[in-house]
Amino acid sequence: MSIIPMRHARICEKVRSSIDIIEIGTPMIIEYGMSAVRAFRKAFPEKEILADAKIMDAGEYEAEQCFAAREFSNRLMHLGLTAYFVGEPTTPSIGAGDLLVIGSGSGTTASLAVNAKKAKAAGAKLATLTI
Question: Contact at 8 Å (CB) between 20 and 48?
Fold first, then answer.
């Protein structure tokens, strides 16, 4: 398990006999994907695991991550560089010689990994930032 799920696993371990259900919340699923659910299933096979994949209660967390990335893109434009934000309707397809900058806390976010693979396949360079 990665660092954050391990911290949560230690908390669950301390109260193991008192809990019936372990919820893997949206922010953890967004950050670590289903590997977090599998890790908790392996560590706590006798417990029910609830994978809460709705986004309505994690909106602030997700918005903060998105705004930070968007602000970075804007700063690049302010510096006179041509920069686009993935997901905007005016963003062109990535191509050879382009640079995709990915910000991630875990380095394992599934959607970011897909974008990275597409960029490399198109001949683009890839840079990662820890956020």
Answer: yes
Sorted by where each begins, the domain ranges of the chain are 3-51, 59-130
Residue 130 makes CB contacts below 8 A (sequence gap 6+) with 103, 104, 105, 107
Could you please state the CATH topology (level 3) that the domain comprising 59-130 is classified under.
Rossmann fold (3.40.50)
Provide the whole-model pTM: 0.52
131 residues of the chain, pLDDT tens digit each: 444 556 667 788 888 888 888 888 777 777 777 888 888 889 889 988 888 776 555 566 666 666 677 788 888 889 998 998 888 888 899 999 999 988 776 666 778 888 888 999 999 998 887 66
